[in-house]
Amino acid sequence: HSAWTKWTGFLLRWTPVGICLFGVIDWQLHKQKSERESLPRTASSFQSKVYCSLPLRIISRCWGWLAACYVPVSLRPYIYGWYSNAFGVNMEEALYPDYKYYNSLAAFFTRPLREGVRPIDNRAAIVSPADGRVLHFGSAQNKLIEEVKGVNYSVSSFLGPVTWHKRLNGNFEEELKEINDGSTELFQCVIYLAPGDYHRFHSPAEWQPKLRRHFVGELLSVNPRIVNWLPDLFCLNERAVYMGKWEHGFFSYAAVGATNVGSVQIYMDDDLKTNRWMGLQLGAHKDRHIYDEIELSNKTHFGRGEMLGQFNMG
Amino acid sequence: STIVLLFEAPKNFKFTIKTGQKVKVGESLGVL
After folding, report:
1. Distance from the A178 Cα atom to the nearest Cα atom in chain B, whole angstroms
2. Is A138 in the B-facing interface, judged by CB distances under 8 Å?
3. Which of A80, A86, A275, A296 sees the fewest Cβ atoms within 10 Å?
4. Is the Cβ pair A193, B31 closer than 8 Å?
5. Distance to chain A for B1, nearest Cα, Å
């Protein structure tokens, strides 16, 4: 019994020290390697596993529950005022500029805008689907798209396989494209919505979605610093991807969830259920590359600037 | 939260934005 007590005491005392030491060594080695190879400083696989193991889904669901709680009218100006100052909310653009209108922080977060405050640029081929910051844009080359400068992720991991074409030749980019005469290219654009931004999103062009894929993944933060640090982040996170056609070929639109903002709502798709309770699962989600898919009706059509959905708290 | 657009367009498609730029709904992202 005495030996067992000593051994348990030893483990309790030194295990955290060992984990910290291992983490520091791993961080140092990874930093040196990145500096040697002049690469952006990104997470090692150990750091990535530790981060993915955090109970972020449980935290998000708790936050969602708290944010949906009724806020007494007398407290609303203080709570929402603090939030507005902290995250730069512009209430002059809101349809209801009075803080007292919003029953909960969740309702305040998804506040609608006044008619006419977001004119649509009709000369543009593609317009912004959301209020936010451009994280990255460019062409998708060699089956990879850039998350940020120098950090790539795979298009096929992000979208899943092409199953709607018969002409499958092993070249994912060519399989994806509708026009294969060499006149077109794949382009991408990533827009980050900060906590104070308007959290409803719109269609960037006229297009017809054919299918929707829901990837149940992690709910990692998509803060630009984390995006810089964690390669493949968009392929790890829970997301709803709509794929279809526009006048120039293939078109896809993905709403990627994040910590505390994992509930993606698409108004025309009631079957989409994101950020579902998975029990007290603490480790990385094992099925994050598996998705469920539904085919959309041929009548589904999105107009330019049309409101598509919103990111809810939780 | 993040929106990721991935689309096919003619090779002469040009983005009209800069990395880090703040954009609002309806503003141009690119032209043909």
Report:
1. 8
2. yes
3. A86
4. no
5. 5
Residues A191-232 have pLDDT tens digits of: 999 999 999 999 999 999 999 999 988 888 888 888 778 877
The better pLDDT of the pair A292, A78 is held by A78
> Which residues 143-182 on chain A approach chain B with CB closer than 8 angstroms?
145, 149, 155, 158-159, 176-179
What is the phi/psi pair of residue A235, to 5°? Answer: -85, -15
| Strand A126-127 relative to strand B28-31, pairing | antiparallel
Quote the percentage of chain B above a pLDDT of 70: 100
Mark A87-99 as b/e (b = at least 16 C-beta within 10 Å).
eebeeebbeeeeb
Nearest-10 Cα torsion for A120, A121, A124, A129: -30
In the structure, what pLDDT confidence band is assigned to residue A148 with cuts at 50, 70 and 90?
low
Question: What percentage of chain A reaches a pLDDT higher than 70?
Answer: 88
Name which residue leads in pLDDT, A265 or A41: A265
Mean pLDDT (chain A, rounded): 85
Residue at A224: amino acid letter? P
Tens digit of each residue's pLDDT (9 = 90 or more) over A29-57: 666 666 666 556 677 778 888 888 888 88
Contact of B12 with chain A, judged by CB distance below 8 Å, is answered with no
Residue numbers in A near B28 (CB within 8 A): 121, 123-124, 126-128
User: Phi/psi at A313 (nearest 5 deg)?
Assistant: -70, 145
Please tell me what DSSP assigns to residue A285.
-
Identify the bridge partners of residue A291 per DSSP, sorted by sequence position.
Answer: A215
pLDDT value at residue A55: 85
Inter-residue contact A68 to A313 (CB < 8 Å): yes
Read off the DSSP letter of residue A313.
Answer: P
Burial, A270: exposed, middle or buried (Cβ in 10 Å; 0-12, 13-18, 19+)? exposed
The answer to whether A140 and A158 have CB atoms below 8 angstroms apart is no
What is the side-by-side order of every strand in the sheet holding B14-15? A126-127, B28-31, B14-15
Contact criterion met (CB below 8 Å) for A41 and A27: no
